[in-house]
Amino acid sequence: MIGRLNHVAIAVKDLAAATALYRDTLGARVSQQQPEPQHGVTVVFVELPNTKIELLEPLGAESPIAKFLERNPDGGIHHICYEVDDILAARDRLKERGARVLGSGEPRIGAHGKPVLFLHPKDFLGTLVELEQA
Ligand code: CO
């Protein structure tokens, strides 16, 4: 059911420093900072040949990343995103198998303008999983 790894998201406290680390130390191609107030984050996309890394810095008081950074002050992997062909079919299959879909269970429009869902980390080996209809 799941297809390509769309991205790995890393929560960071200092987006400028994280971007410089990826650009200058790791030699990666990085985007401009992109504020996404509806998701409570500012994002920098790191373009790799086979996938993307998203560096996420909290934006606003309600940011879902802020709590994560309280528990992980050095930053850390926040979620991984797999592509699926049909997000509603994927959701129904997962629910049938007892996996918990976060929020209302209805897909939201994610950072790339495509429908996404998040799955409970306790059901997936301690990893927050995002599904994106590619
Ligand atoms: Co994501």
Short note summarizing the structure:
Belongs to the methylmalonyl-CoA epimerase family. By secondary structure, the protein is an alpha+beta fold.
Describe this entry's structure for a reader:
- Belongs to the methylmalonyl-CoA epimerase family.
- Residues 4-134 form the VOC domain.
- Pfam families: Glyoxalase_4.
- This is Methylmalonyl-CoA epimerase.
- The protein is an alpha+beta fold and 134 residues long.
- The protein has a single domain (5-133), classed as 2,3-Dihydroxybiphenyl 1,2-Dioxygenase, domain 1.
- Helices cover 22% and strands 35% of the residues.
- The protein has helices at 15-25, 64-71, 87-96, and strands at residues 5-11, 29-30, 34-36, 41-47, 52-58, 76-84, 108-109, 115-119, 129-133.
- Strands 1, 2, 3, 4, 5, 6, 7, 8 and 9 form a 9-stranded mixed beta sheet that branches.
- The protein starts with a strand and ends with a strand.
- The model has no long low-confidence stretch (mean pLDDT 95).
- Cobalt (II) ion binds at residues 7, 9, 54, 79, 81, 111, 130.
- The site of cobalt (II) ion has 7 residues, from β1 and β6.
